[in-house]
Give the backbone structure.
Amino acid sequence: MKRRTLHDQYFRRAKREGYLARSAYKLLEIQEKKRLIRPGDRVLDLGCAPGSWLQVAAELVGPRGAVVGVDLTPVRPGLAPTVTAIEADAFALSPADLPGGSPFDVLLSDMAPATAGDLSDHYRSMDLCHRVLDLAGDVLRPGGNLAMKALEGAAYRELLGRAGGLFRDCRGYRPRATRDASTEIYVVGRGFRVGG
Ligand SMILES: C[S@@+](CC[C@H](N)C(=O)[O-])C[C@H]1O[C@@H](n2cnc3c(N)ncnc32)[C@H](O)[C@@H]1O
């Protein structure tokens, strides 16, 4: 009951503080612990709708930075002028299609597969994550940072092992705003090693 109250608090807090979704607090907590995003950075956010991570990233990069979001569905209107959102499949875009081109300083993915409520969710999430890691080689600069949502399960260790080879420092991180019953965890990597 206590955790549930805490989660309701995130929902109410998002409404009060003007964030489009409670997931804003997951990125804010990852940022507080891992310092992934800096003023002036260019950030690419895959699976960005409705747009709360875009809001947080825009605040963190400030007026000299830029945030590009990609989602199959539209984002809410009224985002900061430094944010550009594209309606597309993240894996159908070529890096040259992205506003301002590549590379980016930070790659975010809060993409989730359509869930069936069974084991297949985990494997679809692992497939998504491996595709994000493939994409990192095309869109992330050497030394860049990553935060990527994964659903934990049997193939998670293998994913973390692969990501560990691509980043100087890489760990799984479970924010407090993640719901109790969820298997959600974020793979957070710092210091991208090209060809790692
Ligand atoms: C949990 S929501 C993201 C919430 C977002 N971070 C926020 O804070 O507002 C996951 C999103 O991933 C998107 N998504 C899933 N697969 C995708 C794909 N292949 N390309 C683009 N977006 C995708 C979904 O449309 C959905 O909007």
Notes: The two ends are 44 Å apart (CA to CA).
